[in-house]
Please model this.
Amino acid sequence: MVACTLACWRCRWLLPLLLGLAIIMGIIALAGRGWLESESEPYVHQASLWESCTRGAQDLNWNCESLMDYGWGRAAAATYLVGFVILVICFALAVIAFSIEILRFNFVRGIGGLLFVVAAFQIIGLVIYPVKFTEEIPLTGANMFSWAYGFGWASTVVVIGCAFFFCCLPNWEDEVLGNIKPTYYYSSPEKASYIN
Model:
C-alpha cells in the first residue's frame, strides 16, 4: 500500500524563507558600491545607488559625488527603498500568517498583492537608475552595471515569484491544511498475474 498525500503544511516556511532571502539581497543592493563599475583596468569609476565615485588612472583616492543632488537619483533611491520597506512588512506579515494555527488565506492573498506592489516599486527604481545615470553622468572608459545592481534585480525576481505563490496558495487550501483524505493505490492479486 502506498499513501499519496501532499505534505505542504511542513513546507509552509519556504515562502517566508524566500522573502527573507529577498530582503538579504535587497540589503546588499542598497549598501553595495557595485551598481556601476569600470569594466577593466584602470578602475576609474564606481557607483552605488547613493553616489558616483571617480578617480584618475594613477590616483588612490576616490572623488565621490552624491546622486541625491539629482531628481532622478532621489526618485530611484526612494522607489527602491519604499519597495524594500514594504518587503520587510510583507516578511513580518508572512511569519505571522504562517505561525498561527488557523491560516487566514485571504490574508495570505493580501500579502501576495503587496508583493506585486513591492516588485513595481523596485522595477521602477531599477529602470530609472541606469537610464538616467548614463544620460547625465559622464562615463570614462568601458563601464558595466555590476554585482550590487544584479542583487537588486535578483531580489525583485524572487519577490515576483513569491507574489504569485502567495496569490495562488488559497487555491490549495485543503492540501496545505491537510484536509484531503489520502488516496491509497493497491493492486489485487488477480491483476498482478496479468501484469507479469
In short: The first helix runs from residue 14 to 31. The chain has one domain: 11-170.
